[in-house]
Amino acid sequence: MKSLQDSVIVLPGVGPKRLEHLNNLGIYTIEDLLTYFPFRYNDFQVRSIENIADQEKVVLKGQAITEAVVSHYGYRKNRLNFKMLQDHAVINVTFFNQHYLQKQVVQGEDIAVFGKWDDKRKSLTGIKILSSGNQEDEFSPIYHVNKHIRQRTLVDLIGKGLDEYQELIEEWLPESLIQKYHFLGRKEAVKEMHFPQDMAMNEEARRRIIFDEFFEFQMRMQELRYQEKILSQGLEILYDVEQLKAFIAALPFELTNAQKQVTNDICRDLRSPLHMHRLLQGDVGSGKTVVAAIILFAAVSAGYQGALMVPTEILAEQHFISLVKLFETFDVKIALLTGSTKAKERREILADLASHQLDIIIGTHALIQEGVNFHKLGLVITDEQHRFGVNQRKLLREKGDNPDVLFMTATPIPRTLAITAYGEMDVSIIDELPAGRIPIVTRWVRPKQLETVLEWSKKELQKGHQIYVICPLIEESEALDLKNAEETYALLDHFFAPDYQVGLLHGRMKANEKETIMENFKNKSLDILVSTTVIEVGVDVPNATIMLIMDADRFGLAQLHQLRGRVGRGSKASYCVLVADPKNDTGVERMKIMTETNDGFVLSQKDLEMRGPGEFFGVRQSGIPQFLVGDIVADFNMLELARQEAVAIWQEEQWQQQPENHGLSEYLERHQGQSEFD
Ligand code: ADP
Ligand code: MG
After folding, report:
1. What percent of the chain has a predicted confidence (pLDDT) above 90?
2. Phi/psi at 443 (nearest 5 deg)?
3. Quick one: CA torsion of 611, 615, 620, 624, rounded to 10 degrees?
4. Residues with CB under 6 A from ligand 1
5. CB 45: neighbour CB atoms within 10 A?
6. C-alpha to C-alpha distance for 596 and 443, rounded to whole angstroms
7. How many other C-beta atoms can be found within 10 angstroms of the C-beta atom of residue 351?
8. 537 pLDDT exceeds 60?
């Protein structure tokens, strides 16, 4: 009996060699072949010149009203010119170095040209002459192929596959969803993707297939979430309410409403026997560290240990110092463990952790190494969590008996990414800054204005304030990087001598050297700190009021925003100055956006749009799945719909039992483990 799971070798024209080549594309079964969708379409639809953007690539069709004239110039260069009439407009067409096309242009006859439109000159720079009668050329699918399998071969095989097997393509969506969104049927959509009748129908097919992709993913995310929360036995962390109230009352400030709200959310999770798996987002300076301290305190009051894991040593030290201060008058034992903790101290810390002499540990990756054992780990917090891979996150969790987990991030994650990369988590957002903050003023200047800026910055220094100066990482060359920072340091040292002290901090320094420099900046023996991006996250020196960023166009928006968040942390007016000579439009746009908004969510959305999801998170480890047809940025409406529908279905715990969901549950089961999302 025929089945979609048949190997593609059953198709005529597929032998062992070709099978291997198809396998290399990930195509094993007929189903793989039929769902090997084009990633884009060549759009050779004929256009009219009224509404074409400058430099857009289009196909224009008209009557050739002159012959093609070829002229030679330079060394073996030639140019072919003719005029074409479209409606009442005369269009100049030019081909470069394709004089052999001359014969194809016949005066008085219709011709279709694919080329790049110059709106000012009303002229087309030709790329290719299309044989006007050829329908196939107009709108054709483009597949990812390799050098052994050509586009044509693939289209051919898909055609054969459809002929033989299309009746077996089953509908997997519940009828109600198809009705609700007026979707094409699955079978029709699959066919239309490969052999589009026209653009409108193809768009309908894409809409359906994109929904399918997103919906399958979201259904799996919801399943994960269900397993995380409902099925895995969590801890009931029954904290002492009175002690917790006393701790909050002793804080040097009143919590913002947003802080209170998220603290409540998290405390509810702690108390609940279900497992906590929550993401806490808050812009730089919104006060996440305090929230972390409160819930760590809660866990400790219930007799548990807590761990706080951060990506850099400087940040770990910073948090350690803040927490020690916050816990000063309370009976909480806390330690710091990083890569540079001395062997003897490390041994003691590990022993104290294992015997529960220690309540809270703060550290870097050192926390997930072999030999770090807890007595009763109840709560794990990771800060700036997208810097940790999924596996590292898991390792830390496995150190306890399924402890509650909170992920904190100061890079606001655009919603489309949050629901893909972190779709299985609960999300809390601190969307309010502590009262009394004066918005940071951001200015963009060109490098030649640097001296003016430095002169101006003396005003702040005279008030006793401090300045950060950041130099960018120059890709692939730590040496250049250092030189860059060193040169800036020398320049500033010279400029501000002898009145003000300048220090230099960079990634190549030993941990204790860094510590000394940071310490000197904090205690104000240094007025100006020149640094590479090592200070990017978390550093807290409220007396610093200027953030000066050199070559600012080399940074992404999210990173610039992080850096800017290092100032404006007290009640003093603060400034961020971007020094940059952007080489391209996106660079200019980035600088402008920075001066226009202080809202981290707005910036991160822009950043995502400008750089794409991979770049946004920096690395592939981000956990964002690759969709074949759907684009999480461009198609985010669909992504959101798919999520809502998946959530709605999972709200009914017995959804699999309902007749209308049979196709759905069978499909998901059959594709379990095959999907790249697992
Ligand atoms: P984040 O970690 O979110 O960047 P922090 O927790 O470091 O922010 O807080 C930034 C600064 O604001 C710190 O100096 C902190 O003491 C202070 N702060 C936090 N919450 C409040 C509040 N509710 N009112 C006043 N100041 C606060
Ligand atoms: Mg719990």
Report:
1. 49
2. -130, 145
3. -40
4. 253, 255-256, 259, 282, 284-290, 410, 434, 540, 542, 569
5. 13
6. 9
7. 12
8. no
Measure the CA–CA gap between 406 and 99, rounded to whole angstroms. Answer: 66
| Per-residue pLDDT tens over the stretch 298-325 | 999 999 999 999 888 878 888 898 899 9
Comparing C-alpha atoms, which of 170, 147, 149 is closest to residue 158?
149
Q: Which residue has the higher pLDDT, 49 or 534?
A: 49
Distance 604 CA to ligand 1 centre (A): 21
Q: Which domains does the chain have, with CATH numbers?
A: 45-137 (2.40.50.140), 169-231+633-671 (no CATH), 241-430 (3.40.50.300), 441-597 (3.40.50.300)
Neighbours of 384 (CB within 10 A): 20
Residue listed under structure tokens 């359906």: 208
Cβ partners under 8 Å of residue 299, min gap 6:
237, 239, 270, 305, 306, 378, 379, 404
Task: Say whether pLDDT at 620 is over 50.
Answer: no
Distances (CA, A) of 104 to 40, 68, 72, 124, 134: 29, 9, 19, 17, 15
Which pairs count as long-range contacts for 391-398, CB under 8 Å and 24+ apart, including other chains? Answer: 392/365, 392/368, 395/368, 396/307, 396/309, 396/367, 396/368
Give the span between the Cα atoms of 644 and 637, in whole angstroms: 11
Span 215-219, average pLDDT? 92
pLDDT tens for residues 218-268?
A: 998 888 878 776 667 788 999 999 999 999 999 999 999 999 999 999 999
Residue nearest to atom 5 of ligand 1 (CA): 287
Positive/negative CA dihedral, 256, 257, 259, 263: positive
Q: Which residues contact 318 (CB under 8 A, 6 or more apart)?
A: 538, 539, 540
CA of 536 to the centre of ligand 1 (A): 17
| Phi, psi (deg, nearest 5) at residue 154 | -65, -45
pTM over 0.85? The answer is: no
- Rounded Cα–Cα distance for residues 474 and 532 (Å): 10
Pocket test for ligand 1, best of 248, 253, 281, 437 (most atoms within 8 A of CB): 253
Q: Which two tokens stand for residue 219?
A: 């259904």
Q: Which residues of 555-591 are buried (b: 16+ CB within 10 A; e: fewer)?
A: bbbbbbbbbbbbbbbbebebbbbbbbebeeeeeeebb
User: Distance (Å, rounded) from C-alpha 314 to C-alpha 25?
Assistant: 45
Residue 41 has what DSSP assignment?
Answer: E
Give the separation between CA 532 and CA 472, rounded to whole angstroms. Answer: 6
DSSP class of 85: E
H or E segment to which residue 177 belongs: helix 175-181
Whose Cα sits closest to atom 9 in ligand 1?
287
| CA distances (Å), origin 169, targets 35, 197, 659, 663 | 10, 19, 19, 12
175-184, 325-334, 621-630, range with the lowest pLDDT: 621-630
Mean pLDDT, residues 557-584: 88
The total of other beta-carbon atoms located within 10 Å of residue 626's CB is 11
CA of 198 to the centre of ligand 2 (A): 54
Distance (Å, rounded) from C-alpha 233 to C-alpha 273? 7
DSSP 255: P
**C-alpha 286 to ligand 1 mean position (Å):** 6
Query: pLDDT of 55-93, one tens digit each?
Result: 888 888 889 999 999 998 888 889 999 999 988 889 999
